[in-house]
Amino acid sequence: MKKVILLVFLLTFVVLPFVSADLITPGFEPMNIDNKISNFDDFSDYYLLTVCNPPMPRVSLIEGGVIGSCYKFSKLDVYVVKKSNFNLSELSSIENLNYTEFPEYIGQSRFKLVIDNAEHYKEVPVSSTQKSITNYYTIDLNQVKTSPDSKNVQRNWLFYAYIIIPIIALIIIIFIVWKRKKQ
C-alpha cells in the first residue's frame, strides 16, 4: 500500500509541471483589445465574419465594423464572403462542426481571409499605464492583414500623478532646506 501511495505521489510531481491552468500570471492583469474595421461600409455586398479557432470553433457576424472577441488562447481571423454565396442560417451549422470539419468548411474558396491572427487579448503588468487598446484595420480583398493600420492606446494618467506629485514635493523640501541653510 505504501508503494502505491509513493508511486502516485511521484507520478503527481512528474505530471504536475506539464499541467497549466487558465490563470492570470501573478503581477499582471488582463486587458481586452478592441478591433475595428475602418472601411466597413465599403463592403456592403459582403458578410464579414469573425472566426475564432481553436479550442472551440466559433463564427460570428461583424456588425458596425466592430470585430468580436474570442477566448484568450484562440486565434482571431476575419473572413469575407459574398452575400450571394452565403446564407446567414449557415452560421449556426458552422459552430456545430468538429475540429476536422471546421478548417475544411472555412477553407472553401467562397471565404476569403482578410485579417489573420488579430491581437485580441493581452496581459499587462499591474503597474502599466495602459487601460485599453483599439486596433483599426483598413481591409482590402487582395491583401491579408497581420497587423493593424493604426492603434489607439488609452492610458491611465492617474498613475503619472502618483509619480509626479512626490517628485514635486521632494523638490519643494530640498528648496526649503537649501534656503534655511543659506541663512
Structural class computed from helices and strand pairing: alpha+beta
Number of self-contained structural domains: 1
Compute the separation of the termini in Å.
85 Å
Stretches with pLDDT under 50, minimum 5 residues: none
Annotation, overall tally of beta strands: 9
Look at the structure and give the mean pLDDT.
85
- Total count of helical runs of at least 4 residues: 4
The succession of helices and strands, N to C, reads: HEEEEEHHEEEEH
Structure description:
The protein has 183 residues and is α+β, with helices and mostly antiparallel strands. It has one domain (23-156). It is 28% helix and 30% strand. The strands form two sheets. Strands 1, 4, 7, 8 and 9 form a five-stranded mixed β-sheet that branches. It has a four-stranded antiparallel β-sheet with strand order 3-2-5-6.
Q: What is this structure, in a nutshell?
A:
The chain is an alpha+beta fold and 183 residues long. The chain is built from 4 helices and 9 strands.
Q: What are the salient characteristics of this protein?
A:
4-stranded antiparallel sheet; single chain; 183 residues; 30% strand; 5-stranded mixed sheet; alpha+beta
List the helices and strands and how they pair.
Blueprint: H1 2-15, E1 28-37, E2 46-53, E3 58-61, E4 66-67, E5 75-82, H2 90-95, H3 101-106, E6 112-115, E7 121-125, E8 130-137, E9 150-155, H4 158-182
